[in-house]
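Researcher: Structure prediction, please.
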Amino acid sequence: MKNLVNVLGLKQLGLLIGGIMIVGFLSQAVDQEAGQSQIASLQNIVAIAQAIEQGQAIEQAHWDGGIVSYAWGGGHGSTPGPSLGTCSGYTGPSPCRANQTDGLDCSGFVRWVYSIAFGSDVLNGSTYTMIDNPHLQQIDATTAVPGDLVFFGASAASVHHIGIYIGDGKMINALRTGTVVRTDPLLSDLFGYYHYTGTSNLLNGDPSNVSSSSVTATINSVFGPYAGEAMKIATCESGLNPHATNSTAVGGSHAEGVFQILYPSTWSTTSQAAVSPYNAYANIVAAHEIFTRDGNSWREWACKKVLQ
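Model: Predicted structure follows.
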């Protein structure tokens, strides 16, 4: 895989519809990929929430770390993440200091975690409005998995709290004034478990919406502890450009996408073979598969030299 990057024109790319490259690929593959995106992101939601709880730095969120306090109205700025709270509508103990506290309320915390996991602001809103999000589906307790959401209250119209379910009757949440983001038992007035059924910006919309920050977030989500190395490789190979290609053929194949995977030769050996290599999520997942089957090695990438 060579790091000779050229951006393809539309004639070379093929037909571009809704940000997904259609080059004879089946539409069913896109649906399958969307499901894989949800699974991969849900598997990392708990890890992200725990990192925040522990005060760890989160590179893809531009967060330098530190314990996060509860702040009424915190986390509802123009972008996800801790922000100054408000005393408007405040119901906690007096005096209100929310407008002097940078932090998160319960829905602000959930919004931030999901935005990191999915690479876009997928759950923007308060507890009262989040429950009506068309991409949140109520599920039975027996099918709930860590990373799903838990709402509390007597009814959907009167929910007052939300947290991230982590299993064993526990959640990570921003509970109330005077606390920090932490693990707590589920409250006694559990209304229900909810599963996010949407996808990230890497699968929807104009390809110009697939920003480098979205690509970075997905690399962090998929590669986990190896994300730092993966970022260096992807940056060297393509500059994080999902539509990058190498015009030089290698055995009849060309290096394509975020990780410049040889298509069709190497690409056809991955689970993403039916999806376009220019789909950012698919390319990142395929790269992770190659990396792991090579024994957590970057030996197939020319840019492995950047790690030396």
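Model: The two ends are 17 Å apart (CA to CA).
Researcher: Thanks, that helps.
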